[in-house]
Amino acid sequence: MAIPTRILEEIKNSELDAANFYSIYGKENIEAALNDLKKSDEEILNTYSVQAMKAAVAGKLEAKGKATSASVSKSNILKFPATRIISYAAAAVLLAAILIPAGLKNSKLASASAPAERVKGNALSASSKEPQIKLYRKKGLEIQSLKDGDFARSGDVIQITYNAGQDEYGVIFSVDGNGSITRHFPEDSWQAAKLEHRSDETPLDFSYELDNAPDFECFVMVTSKKQFTLEDIESKLTNKSDIDYITKLSYLPKKTEGITFTLEK
């Protein structure tokens, strides 16, 4: 019996206990499949170098600018061999490789000049009717799925993904231990942007490198079924260094809801 890739991914990310599936798929089969998944990720990362990926994205964007609205040349679209199963971990690493310039330090945002190719997410998250935000950390050749309250450090490369649930508009920002506010979505406005509704997670079009701010980094996703703005967030969020105050979300506009995801430092 084939083991669903979703289950293998969640076992690999420590979101599920492999032992719970031994009676269904067999311990040896699960361990072998996990080993194959890890090897597949490593092969992809070794095959598609950072330079090659950047060149492919640049080619795609250049072709897109020249093409008519009817089509874009297939040869310039960034994609992988159809026979390969690309896990979310490998895809997220590639996304970070494209969007984080080498040597970028102490920077809040590493933004692409245009939207990058979307990566496959975790379909399980889409089953919720509530909005969700998830964070992933690039570590060597692996991507770690983070949990609320996990520890992080300066230099960690973080990828943010979300699921819109049943809401239509949203803003994502973060507050660090220095009280600095950084907007992540949308990139150029505090006016809530239209959220994507997909069967999996939606990754933002950039990754985020943590700086040396102390104590915490708190990510806040604010959503609503109707349009709203957070242009006055600087004045509304009166105690930017108090994590308890930030996570209570009392400063948000009426008829919006918020979710927080905190990394301790």
- What proportion strand? 15-25%
Shape: globular
The level of helicity is 25-40%
Radius of gyration from the alpha-carbon trace, in angstroms: 19 Å
Write the element-wise H/E pattern from the N-terminal end onward. Answer: HHHHHEEEEEEEEEHHE
Short structural summary:
The protein has helices spanning 5-12, 22-25, 27-47, 50-66, 88-99, 233-236, 243-248; strands at 110-111, 132-139, 142-145, 157-163, 169-176, 181-185, 193-194, 202-209, 216-224, 257-264. The chain has 265 residues and is α+β, with helices and mostly antiparallel strands.
Any chance you could write out the topology, listing elements then pairs?
Elements: H1 5-12, H2 22-25, H3 27-47, H4 50-66, H5 88-99, E1 110-111, E2 132-139, E3 142-145, E4 157-163, E5 169-176, E6 181-185, E7 193-194, E8 202-209, E9 216-224, H6 233-236, H7 243-248, E10 257-264
Antiparallel strand pairs: 1-8, 2-3, 2-4, 4-8, 5-6, 5-7, 5-9, 9-10
Q: Your description of this structure?
A:
This protein is of the alpha+beta class. The protein has seven helices and ten strands. A five-stranded antiparallel beta sheet has the order 1-8-4-2-3. Strands 5, 6, 7, 9 and 10 form a five-stranded antiparallel beta sheet that branches. A hairpin with a 2-residue loop joins strand 2 and strand 3. Helix 1 crosses helix 3, helix 3 runs parallel beside helix 5 and helix 4 crosses helix 5. The longest helix has 21 residues. The protein is globular and about 55 Å long. The N and C termini lie far apart (43 Å). About 20% of the residues have low confidence.
